[in-house]
Design a protein that fits this description.
This protein has about 200 residues and is α/β, with parallel strands linked by helices. It is built from 5 helices and 7 strands. A 7-stranded mixed β-sheet has the order 1-3-4-2-5-6-7, sandwiched between helices. It binds guanosine-5'-triphosphate (GTP) and magnesium ion. The site of magnesium ion (MG) has 4 residues, from helix 1.
Length: about 200
């Protein structure tokens, strides 16, 4: 677990997106998939990132500085919230794409996917978009506590087939704590690999 995590910057508009001085790992996924909950669980701080059962809670890009390691975890606003206006959705897309594009310090995007659902078009589109930018995608299946083993395995197998990965995506639960330490260790390993090249 990281020793200190602090919210350093909140960005609502493209104008506020300056260059960040450290490597970044972003958390992306549909609204309500559990991005902010994962951040809280990873950091062991219940209310670091605001969570809600109402989708669309996170409306901004939030940069959390992890110390002493020295990188940012970036909580991205969720996509695919049906009740959100077209203007809001366009704003999300513009802000997020601007952030993802031409960001040499972004060393990966953790794609959070609901373990209860078969692969959804919106998620597949996002993953393909990120891959096309040359950024590594780390797929993770959330809310594993909410479904039974056969469903979890089926979702894992479907994503593995689709992504053509060697291993199936990791199943996690921010409620039960399942695989949270393992996931954190994988973030540290990725960060260590990039920082040795910097
Ligand atoms: N059972 C269960 N519920 C979870 C888990 N993770 C998150 N939730 C619940 O799912 C809801 C949404 O969680 P958030 O973490 O706010 O989701 P988000 O992806 O940050 O959503 P946006 O900010 O809207 O993009 C909340 O009610 C959480 O308590 C989990 O591992 N298990
Ligand atoms: Mg959130």
């Amino acid at each position: 677990m990281p020793s200190t995590v602090i919210l350093e910057k909140t960005v609502y508009t493209i104008d506020q997106l300056g260059e960040m001085p450290l490597p970044q790992l972003a958390l992306a996924g549909r609204s309500n998939v559990g991005k902010s909950s994962l951040l809280n669980k990873l950091t062991g701080r219940k209310n670091l990132a605001k969570t809600s059962s109402t989708p669309g809670k996170t409306r901004s890009l939030n940069f959390y500085k992890v110390e002493p390691e020295g990188f940012y975890l970036v909580d991205l606003p969720g996509y695919g919230y049906a009740r959100c206006s077209k203007t809001e959705r366009d704003k999300w897309a513009a802000l997020t794409t601007r952030y993802l594009k031409n960001n040499a310090r972004l060393f990966g995007v953790v794609a959070l996917l609901d373990s209860r659902l078969t692969p959804q078009t919106l998620d597949i589109d996002l993953i393909n978009y990120i891959k096309a930018l040359g950024i590594e995608v780390i797929p993770v299946l959330t809310k594993a506590d909410k479904c039974k083993q056969p469903v979890r395995s089926a979702t894992q197998a479907a994503w593995q087939r689709l992504l053509g990965t060697e291993k199936p995506p990791m199943l996690i639960s921010s409620h039960s704590g399942m695989n949270i330490d393992k996931l954190w260790q994988s973030f540290l390993d990725k960060f260590a690999a990039v920082s040795s090249h910097e």
